[in-house]
Design a protein that fits this description.
4 copies of one chain form a homotetramer.
Chain A: E1 14-19, E2 23-28, E3 40-46, H1 48-58, E4 67-69, H2 73-85, E5 92-94, E6 102-108, E7 114-119, H3 135-139, E8 141-147, H4 156-169, E9 173-177, H5 188-201, E10 204-208, H6 209-215, H7 226-234, E11 240-244, E12 250-254, E13 259-262, H8 275-288, H9 293-308, H10 320-331, E14 338-340
Parallel strand pairs in A: 1-8, 2-6, 4-5, 8-9, 9-10, 10-11
Antiparallel strand pairs in A: 2-3, 6-7, 11-12, 12-13, 13-14
Helix pairs in contact in A: 1-8, 8-9, 9-10
Chain lengths: ~350, ~350, ~350, ~350
């Protein structure tokens, strides 16, 4: 039996506070064609930490959020959406300088080819400033989850580090979702510098192999190996590392030496994004429920599979019951989702 | 009989070159509700000078364009659209710095209440630089039409003035469509400075009463009268002034002393924007055809009426035949559209 | 007899309002060596329009100023200096954003080789905004003198155009001192655009042949001829053109057809700058005194000669009596300073 | 006997690499008056890490430097000066974007009242980028000394963190000289975030009590006590903390529990700055020589006293022999400079 190595402050009011961007996704209704030829779009809440917030709220967790939205119809839409999902919006700032909320227009050319056209100039989410961060809010939470994109630019970057300082001070666990997006960053060395600073402070780190390589470019540039990554960050505060390898699934390391291989449930893919956010929220849910790591990982993989088969990244987030039902439905296929090494 | 006072270089290859922004309009499919509650959007080409380009191409004119688009799916969509409409795209730059094309999300709350949510941060259209302007291109055109929004920021501002210098040098007529939008401008005095510079160089000026007031804030701040405006700008290069008064219609002045009142055709309004672009393109068409001003104005008013009754600002631009048919259909109502004073 | 072609509003309180930068010059005390090897510097007021202000104050004229200085010791030094010279400082703004006053470190390598090391980043003088310009102040002056460098960047650029609009409205004469400096400008086309706009509004234009070429790059790029320049700008508001040809002296054109060649008085040169500011102030003084143009030009040339032989550009500005004495002293040399063609 | 707790890689080629700004000081020759009334200035090399470099070179150490200078006469002056002092300039970048070297005009109103007028807009020193940092150079040094001002803005901030990552990787000791200057920083929380990141990585930290308070504003805001500071940073990599208390002298803590009080030698003050840089270089010299901490601190205090009695911050840096002579001269006064608690 593998015990899950994170220990949560059970008495705290808020389960998790994702921190970072809330965006609007415009998903084209006509799929399997280039965006030059699509005509209509449906709007959804998007942005990795926002998706995770919705994901965890659907799973019944008490979810807060630290972020910044635009002072317009889209910003109000986002607030309403969160409120309806039961997410606490008391720590979401409204930018008064006219900064817009970020947009993501998705293009699904085929089952495997998809891309995103981003509107991220002067976005509201990167306007959140250190002064806005409430020490009290973070002190009342079990976990804060930092999205790496929030580190890409001042003042959001410093706001994240302030939040992490408060989290360390009050033993709020830090989950670092590397979530690398090239826009806003000025250089790859800048990425390495701030990602490694965040990683040193974090209790759990989630990212793709490529994201770990970026992060480790200064510290251990030659490695590109999951076990070296694990050793590197376990030397600081990390307890669990999740390293994703695309279609190959993910490898999960714990500080006490366990290693798991997690495979994807076979589903008919609609799009190639959104799965990671479902995975993160379901994994964190499992750990918070006190489940063993194996069980949590299977649950995470199931949620990810359900997500990539649907049209949105937020509205399609499943409930715990739906995920369990999905796993039951797949049981007879004798799938080998999680293996311990 | 009132002769139209502009004389066009008949031998020139291109009829008109609008200069300024090409944008993408996202019109909500669900109307008569706030944007917080709309779910799907249909995309169209937008931006006042782009709409005018489409309008004049539909009317059979040879249309060029000077502008700058994004190097992405939306930019290519715009180029394809123009090409399909028969508009020459040889002088449309493609920005290589990652600037996005502007977006306009329309919100139609009721027949009279509508608003536009703009994405104009770092937009490609304002990136056009003086170095890009081709003297030869302008020399080959009868008319360039400058959209005032293109004056709102460097380097597009200077690019416009360079284009106007070339136009003056080669006797290409300049139409100035004031087209004021508050974003991008830094102060109202800045607006007055550059609008009056452009107005002094222009042969025809089109704008609302409010736009003329803004433009004249330094020169004759107290006036706010159409006849003072006419005297002010006729002292320079202007030959025709079109001053719009919202639902009251527009007043049109010519340097040789004629004054016309133009009323709107009664139609069931769908939205309150786009009519001005149809008006400008149809009026310019009439003048280029050598029609008398009265006839041209009635034609312009008809095109505007057709536009405000439809869902888009570009795709709905009518052909000459359609406008004539619309006028014929209204004939029995004994409407008094154009009156000379 | 050639009458001077400018007519001044004799009743107005202020003779001249230069507009543009006030800077601090640091002139190296050790001369004829590269700046890498100089150790001590003496500080003076500098900046072309500031020098002209001091020049005209020394000549007994009532001088105002429109500009912006830093809120620090150097800014206060400049204000004190102006006050002591009798210059009205009521329209000099004090920047509150922390912008520094510009600095110019001079390097005199030899009698003919000298250079200036500039500190112009974020300078206070370019922070003057359109809102600061007082219509009343300009209305009370005979002449405003615009330094071309003040056109190089917003908001100073727009402030100048607002001042020129007010000047035109109230028949205050506009002298345009092209005064081109490459820093702050973004492109040569930008220079041409704004210089030609300013030139069209001006009653007198002063500049070197190279500066006229820059200004005319759009309007008549091929010319580079003084008589073409004269014809170009006399078509608008200009009455007098002063075109400088370095050591060859200057050519002066008037709208009524007179042409003068002005040579330099022979003196032992100490530095190669500052002469132009002395020339401009002495010429304007002569014209304001109602002198014929010939006499004014000889006076201007004398003042310029005195300046280039001294260590500073402001403190060394001569009085009218000193200039007349200088001319008398040179009389026996039978010099031929001003020739009419 | 107190052993000094830092251990240096004796075999390494370079003793110390200060990193940060090189500036030019303009010290007024006329003292004891406001700068509005000073006329001449003498120029010197300045900037805290540059002064320390000169200080250690004078003490016979092998000194490198990581920084960025302007591509002009002042930049070349700085390079020449360093070369003449025997400092290795191979890792000093020359900015090609036109950024100026920083200037500091000193104003000495009285023995106790002095101020500095800074020119730091767009300065070259903050342009050093992560890409410029040589891992090899840092690997060959015993110590790098990071000036806190170099953390105030990108890309210099990231360049410093890259240098610190390389230092940690190769066991090059890191000395962090907090050196807080308000300009360039955007907020006090930003200061705390980056100062505490740097402090966690550093082996020795030097700053005033106010600087430690700033740095600890997130971590232990209420403390403001030297022993709390010591405990805070000894929990990471720090071995020695120097906390300055102005005229009261400084308190020095070591990780193994020693605490020293260091007083100032009595001298006739000429100016109130520069002493700290002499102190830092002499202290580091003593430690590198293998001296006990007491002896090193007395030596540091002596060097500081010599500096504040002279006109410059770099040219006046003493040799080891001069410092020893100064201490001998003061011996008969029975001064109690260093006391252990």
């Amino acid at each position: 039996m593998t015990l899950n190595s994170l220990s949560f402050h059970e008495s705290r009011e808020i389960d998790v506070i994702p921190m970072g961007r809330i965006a609007i996704d415009f998903n084209s209704n006509e799929i399997f064609r280039p965006m030059e030829e699509t005509n209509t779009f449906t709007k959804y809440i998007g942005g990795s930490p926002a998706n995770i917030a919705v994901g965890m709220a659907r799973l019944g967790k008490k979810v807060g959020f630290i972020g910044c939205i635009s002072d317009d119809q889209f910003g109000r839409y986002a607030l309403n959406y969160f409120t309806n999902e039961g997410i606490d919006t008391s720590n979401i700032a409204v930018d008064k300088s006219g900064a817009p909320i970020g947009l993501a227009f998705t293009e699904i050319k085929s089952e495997t080819e998809s891309s995103i056209l981003m509107y991220r100039d002067n976005v509201a989410d990167l306007k959140i400033s250190p002064e806005y961060i409430s020490e009290e809010y973070i002190k009342n939470a079990k976990v804060i989850l930092i999205s790496g994109t929030a580190l890409s630019k001042a003042p959001s970057r410093e706001a994240c580090f302030v939040a992490m300082e408060y989290a360390k001070k009050h033993n709020t666990l830090i989950v670092f979702d590397i979530d690398y997006r090239p826009y806003s960053w000025k250089s790859l060395k800048e990425v390495s510098v701030y990602y490694s600073m965040a990683a040193r402070m974090s209790n759990m780190i989630i990212g793709s192999r490529e994201e770990f390589d970026l992060m480790e470019a200064l510290v251990c540039p030659e490695s590109k190996s999951d076990s070296v990554s694990a050793n590197t960050w376990f030397a600081y505060n990390a307890e669990i590392l999740v390293i994703k390898h695309g279609k190959e699934g993910s490898n999960v390391y714990t500080k006490n030496g366990d290693v798991f291989k997690v495979r994807a449930f076979p589903v008919k893919l609609l799009k190639s994004f959104g799965g990671g956010d479902a995975y993160a929220s379901a994994l964190l849910y499992g750990l918070m429920e006190g489940w063993e790591l194996e069980k949590s990982l299977e649950f995470a993989s199931a949620s990810a599979a359900m997500l990539v088969a649907s049209h949105s990244c937020s509205a399609a987030m499943p409930t715990a019951h739906e995920i369990q039902q999905f796993i039951l439905d797949k049981k007879d296929q004798n799938l080998d989702i999680v293996t311990q090494y």
